[in-house]
Sequence to fold (136 residues):
Amino acid sequence: MSEQQDAQAERAIGRLTIADPLTSEPVTPVPVPKPDREWKLRNGFAWVYYGKGSPGITRPVLMADGFNLGRSNLEWLYQGLEADFPLISTLRDRGRTVILLGTDPPARRPRRGAHPSLPACAPPPSAGALSGRETK
Fold:
């Protein structure tokens, strides 16, 4: 491959995009229903959509935003997950609860456990780890 072809290929790859830019509006807006529940979480928030015929959480599916630099826009996330294929609606029709997790903008540099779902998933560090000493 010549240098010119190599440069042309590199420019073409630079334009390659896996998804629409984060600031883009949906091509066909989808109506976003009011969530069944709204939760305030440490470092974030969640919208909960119960499955069809379910009065509570059943076989939950968690979907997280947090790829922007500011506060998550769960309406935008919902529309993105429903636009081309009705993913949320299909899960709910099958009786699954869908929980959309959003993040608040960080007040300082992110740290381990900063995502709202991590405190429930990751064990807290031991006292020794916090002080720099190992404990057994």
Remarks:
- The chain is about 25% helix and 15% strand.
- Residues 118-136 have pLDDT under 50 and may be disordered.
- The first helix runs from residue 3 to 14.
